Amino acid sequence: MNDAVPAPTSAPTPAPAPRPRVRAPELIGKGGWLNTGGRELTLADLRGRIVVLDF
What we know:
The protein has about 55 residues and is mostly loops.
């Protein structure tokens, strides 16, 4: 008799689906930017930087 217990088989987990890339809209509106020295900023100016927004 063969008393060996077969090793459990596990199916590989599928890779997560890639998330769609969404471009952020430019931030425009009344009031303008605060604490920028009067300089208007664009998203290109902020690319690669950490930005904290308080709405």
